[in-house]
């Protein structure tokens, strides 16, 4: 039977027009309608910090990636070290179930994560995505309290302006007003919210945090926050001092503390993990995004021995969670290579270099009409507007400048790969300013 024009044979290829038509007909893109109302750009390959398009768009065939593919591709694309790790593991096995079996890449990765994360995190649950790692973290905390005879401790406390993922429990601790998940406010578990943390340390706000934890301690399983940087909820920065306040309050009132380091982990803030900026450690930590250097989807939930032993001594002495691709050998091998690549160089100096370049390059934005704030921390540069950004116009302006950005809400921001050179970084900053003018 001949191949259908819509079901090509294994060696068939699509032209750009046909690819976009099929994409529009069949592919549901993130945070978009079905069918899509705007055509995405077609990327045919990527190398270093550049995305190569299938055909020129606004005069550009290559775009500097100012987003690190949603903050994950910290080493850029097509990196020889990560390629070699992937190829070597493919020749051995790409996957094997983790139930009843184990393998060297996953064991090595878990051991490495314990070595580099703050004490006393000791145990590692490998999972599929950042959102799932938050689900696992919440499940750990809920089951811990049930196992130790405190089943009424079922709620979570966080602050407004956060974002923790798109699955069920993570949605419940995202900002309940104006966030992406406001639609589900009457269905999701009802959590406890403090106001969004101020940028500078404020003792009255710290007192409110202490009071909330104290007042709700009997029903709180955990406090969960993004340390120092609130990511997709608004790209806000806050004082590390609030993490110390939460750690002390949780210890005093018998509440577990979760740090969601999915966006901040692996050097993005200038510290390997943002918790280090406060000098405290959580009971549970979530990692993802840059874990595999942007090569494969993988995340991890780490916990202390107290949490693990509490669960394991309970009436149901297992954590009943087991993703099919848990501990995937291919992702584990690449993650190990990515961590070694990061720590085998002076990554702190590279992030400081990017921070200096972002401060210099984005200074121009401070004088532009409609700009409310410009802020930089580590390899994160943010321009906040006083109005909702015109995403289509801002994106087009950035593309015309030769850069890929993904503005949202009232923000035009960049999180470039750590390997971005000074010239390319300056171009990214000019593109941010162009997007601000257009948006």
From TrEMBL:
CDD domains hit by this protein: OAT_like (cd00610)
Broad class of the protein's primary localization: cytoplasm
Cofactor: pyridoxal 5'-phosphate
Binding site for substrate: 70, 163, 289, 322, 406
One Pfam family named in its UniProt record: Aminotran_3
Modified residues (N6-(pyridoxal phosphate)lysine): 289
Catalyses which reaction(s): (8S)-8-amino-7-oxononanoate + S-adenosyl-L-methionine = S-adenosyl-4-methylsulfanyl-2-oxobutanoate + (7R,8S)-7,8-diammoniononanoate
Pathway(s) where this gene product acts: Cofactor biosynthesis; biotin biosynthesis; 7,8-diaminononanoate from 8-amino-7-oxononanoate (SAM route): step 1/1
Alphabetical UniProt keywords: Aminotransferase, Biotin biosynthesis, Cytoplasm, Pyridoxal phosphate, S-adenosyl-L-methionine, Transferase
Protein origin, superkingdom: Bacteria
Subcellular location field: Cytoplasm
EC id: 2.6.1.62
GO cellular component, one term: cytoplasm
Marked site (Participates in the substrate recognition with KAPA and in a stacking interaction with the adenine ring of SAM) residue numbers: 31
GO biological process: biotin biosynthetic process
GO molecular function: adenosylmethionine-8-amino-7-oxononanoate transaminase activity; pyridoxal phosphate binding
Record keyword Transferase present: yes
Family label: Belongs to the class-III pyridoxal-phosphate-dependent aminotransferase family. BioA subfamily.
Function, as annotated: Catalyzes the transfer of the alpha-amino group from S-adenosyl-L-methionine (SAM) to 7-keto-8-aminopelargonic acid (KAPA) to form 7,8-diaminopelargonic acid (DAPA). It is the only aminotransferase known to utilize SAM as an amino donor.
Protein name: Adenosylmethionine-8-amino-7-oxononanoate aminotransferase
Organism: Streptomyces lunaelactis
Gene: bioA
């Amino acid at each position: 039977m001949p191949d259908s024009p819509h079901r090509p044979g294994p060696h068939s290829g699509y032209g750009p027009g046909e690819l976009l038509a099929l994409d529009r007909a069949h592919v549901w893109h993130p945070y978009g309608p079905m069918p899509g109302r705007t055509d995405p750009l077609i990327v045919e390959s990527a190398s270093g910090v550049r995305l190569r398009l299938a055909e020129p768009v606004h005069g550009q065939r290559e775009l500097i990636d100012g987003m690190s593919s949603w903050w994950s591709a910290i080493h850029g694309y097509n990196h020889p070290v990560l390629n070699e790790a992937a190829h070597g593991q493919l020749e051995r096995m790409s996957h094997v179930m983790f139930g009843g079996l184990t393998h060297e890449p996953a064991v090595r990765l878990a051991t490495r994560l314990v070595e580099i994360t703050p004490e006393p995190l000791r145990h590692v649950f490998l999972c599929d995505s950042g959102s799932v790692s938050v689900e696992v973290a919440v499940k750990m905390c809920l089951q811990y309290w049930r196992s130790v005879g405190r089943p009424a401790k079922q709620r979570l406390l966080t602050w407004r302006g956060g974002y923790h993922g798109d699955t069920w429990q993570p949605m419940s601790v995202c900002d309940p007003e104006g966030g992406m998940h406001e639609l589900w406010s009457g269905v999701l578990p009802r959590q406890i919210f403090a106001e969004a943390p101020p940028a500078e340390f404020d003792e009255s706000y710290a007192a409110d945090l202490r009071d909330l934890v104290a007042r709700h301690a009997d029903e709180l399983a955990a406090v969960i926050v993004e340390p120092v940087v609130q990511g997709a909820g608004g790209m806000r920065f806050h004082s590390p001092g609030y993490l110390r306040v939460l750690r002390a309050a949780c210890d005093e009132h018998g509440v577990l503390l979760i740090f969601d380091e999915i966006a901040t982990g692996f050097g993005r803030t200038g510290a390997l993990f943002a918790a280090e900026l406060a000098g405290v450690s959580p009971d549970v930590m979530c990692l993802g995004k840059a874990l595999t250097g942007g090569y494969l989807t993988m995340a991890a939930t780490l916990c202390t021995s107290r949490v693990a032993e509490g669960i394991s001594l309970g009436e149901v002495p297992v954590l009943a969670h087991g993703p099919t691709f848990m501990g995937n050998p291919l992702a584990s091998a690449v993650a190990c290579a990515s961590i070694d690549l990061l720590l085998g160089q002076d990554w702190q100096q590279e992030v400081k270099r990017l921070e200096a370049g972002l401060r210099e390059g984005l200074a121009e934005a401070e004088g532009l009409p409609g700009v409310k704030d410009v802020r930089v921390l580590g390899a994160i540069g943010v321009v906040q507007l006083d109005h909702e950004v015109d995403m289509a116009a801002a994106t087009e302006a950035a593309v015309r400048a030769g850069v890929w950005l993904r503005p949202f809400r009232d923000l035009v921001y960049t999180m470039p790969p750590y390997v971005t050179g000074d010239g390319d970084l300056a171009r990214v900053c000019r593109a941010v300013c162009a997007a601000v003018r257009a948006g």
